Amino acid sequence: MKKLVIMLFTLAASFPLRAGEDMCGVRNYAFEHGESISYTIFYSVIGIYVNAGTANFTTYLEKLNNKDVYHVVGIGSSNPSYDWIFKVRDRYESYIDTATLQPYKFIRNVDEGGYKTYENVTFNHQTNTAITAKGVYKVPSCIQDVLSSIYYARNLDFNNYKVDDKIPFDMFLDNQVYPLYIRYLGKEVIKTKYGKFRAIKFRPLLVKGTIFTGGEKMTVWVSDDANHIPLRIESPIVVGSVKVDMMQYRNLRHPLSSMIGIN
């Protein structure tokens, strides 16, 4: 995954399903309209982490072509004082079917260290195609984009997998289909900048890009409760390493029952 917001939420994955569900029709149990989650990005070169940026993800309930959709907006940016090192101004948007959690539209507008790109993708699930400014691309039936996969994954159950199992998924980005996976690592208690949590842990397979070196080098922890929100992400990058902690939330669908202590 090539961009900062992708790193922040590489929850883009197909986790185990609830009984009776298939891979393309997962109902939403985890989030609701108005949910907003904010993160602080810490950067380190010599082992000392400094506050280098922020990210926020907000969910709205809207209409797209007369269909009910969740409009999810993810924004990531470096702090102005660190822009001279590596300036990041990223905005991602996804329009997700409220019934199936499949994406209809994906927009990406990013500026990362001078690399700028704009992408506008329309997904046709009847023909299994993704339409962009550069053409029409065949995609698997359960394709996800960067943001839709996060919210899809939050509604799936981890309990059917064993530690070290790989869970595959397909993502469309940069006019390509990426066959990726996450490696489930079990559950543990973690202490973040916000508080202490019971968490679910995994490592995603990353695609080498402008920030990340690729491979299974990133570790992600999500809340071990009905919300499944990302709590912490750690990863080496091309120069140094990053750590991302959840710092604020509003309008969660369920109590954050995984939290067992607050800083």
Write a structural description.
The chain is mostly beta strands. The protein is built from three helices and 15 strands. It has a 15-stranded antiparallel sheet that branches. It has one domain (4-262). The relative contact order is 0.21. InterPro entries: DUF3108 (IPR021457). Keywords: Signal.
SSE order and pairing:
Elements: H1 4-8, E1 36-44, E2 50-64, E3 67-78, H2 83-86, E4 88-97, E5 103-112, E6 115-124, E7 129-132, E8 135-138, H3 146-153, E9 166-173, E10 176-191, E11 195-204, E12 219-223, E13 230-236, E14 241-250, E15 259-262
Antiparallel strand pairs: 1-2, 1-14, 2-3, 3-4, 4-5, 5-6, 6-7, 7-8, 9-10, 10-11, 11-12, 11-15, 12-13, 13-14
Pfam families: DUF3108
Signal peptide: 1-19
InterPro entries: DUF3108 (IPR021457)
Indicate how many domains the architecture comprises: 1
Radius of gyration: 17 Å
Run of helices and strands: HEEEHEEEEEHEEEEEEE
Largest β-sheet summary:
15 strands, antiparallel
Give the tags.
263 residues, mainly beta, 15-stranded antiparallel sheet, 3 helices, 15 strands, disordered N terminus
